[in-house]
Design brief:
Length: 262
């Protein structure tokens, strides 16, 4: 049986971040939903127990549409996490949201298909609200941390989640921009909703790496290499922000996330 107090805060993200945690040890969790993307990397930040998992695997070998989101999120819950932070590389759909900026999304639009996106699809059917998908308490803490660090940030935004692994056509990108949505990504759904289904608090940190298909700022279309370069150049910024957020997360949960499912 899995120990229930291995971590308080879970972090999904790109390969490499776990190297910044203290006293790392790896734990493999068996789940009813199959294999997780990788082992959980356990460490501490500011005296708080943290678990990190690279959602694409430590070698970035799992495509976004093939990530086992249900297993990954269930594993975080199983070891005791009550908060889950989901940093991600993301594209911008609006000119004022610039590469290098951080967006704390408060809404998403699901444009994926065929992903296993609920724990309630068999006997115990429940209908969980997604009206306000991200935790307002965690978002408030994160925004304050970004402000104190002097980072360029946006305190709200809608992320449209596409299937991947391909990037958008120009027509698709133009359509999403016309809707007024700010951010585009391939992994936020169903990760955030599954976190809510297990009564944990979700937070998104979108690190903007590009202008999607290039239409918004009349630049070259996005490439995988360009995304990785901008992300690598901003990893220290993301690290500082994550450490500050973890340090300032309250031990008390005064939001409604813990009651998402009765």
């Amino acid at each position: 049986m899995t120990e229930k107090n291995l971590a308080q805060i879970g972090i999904f993200g790109g390969s490499g971040f776990y190297k910044f945690l203290d006293d790392i040890r790896e734990v493999n969790i068996d789940t009813p939903y199959g294999k997780t993307s990788d082992a959980l990397m356990l460490g501490t930040i500011a005296g708080k127990k943290v678990a990190f998992m690279p959602r694409h695997g430590r070698n970035h070998s799992i495509a976004p549409h093939k990530v086992n989101y249900r297993a990954n999120v269930w594993a975080m819950k199983e070891i005791g996490c009550t908060r889950v932070i989901s940093p991600c590389a993301a594209g911008s759909l609006q000119k004022h949201v610039k590469p290098g900026d951080i967006v704390f999304c408060d809404q998403y639009v699901n444009w994926t298909n065929g992903r296993l996106d609920t724990y309630f699809d068999e006997q115990d059917i429940k209908h969980v609200s997604a009206a306000n998908p991200y935790c307002p308490e965690l978002r408030k803490t994160a925004i304050e941390c970004a402000k104190n660090l002097g980072f360029e940030y946006h305190d709200h935004g809608t992320v449209v989640v596409i299937q991947g692994p391909r990037f958008n056509t120009k027509s698709e990108s133009a359509f999403f921009t016309r809707q007024g949505w700010e951010v585009i990504n391939m992994t936020q759904y169903p990760e955030v909703h599954l976190v809510k289904e297990l009564n944990m608090c979700p937070l998104n940190i979108s690190l903007i790496t590009d202008y999607d298909a290039g239409l918004v700022n009349d630049c070259d279309p996005v490439s995988h290499e360009a995304v990785m370069e901008v992300f690598a150049n901003n990893i220290n910024k993301l690290q500082k922000l994550l450490f500050s957020i973890v340090e300032n997360i309250s031990d008390d949960r005064n939001c409604d996330c813990k009651n998402s499912v009765g």
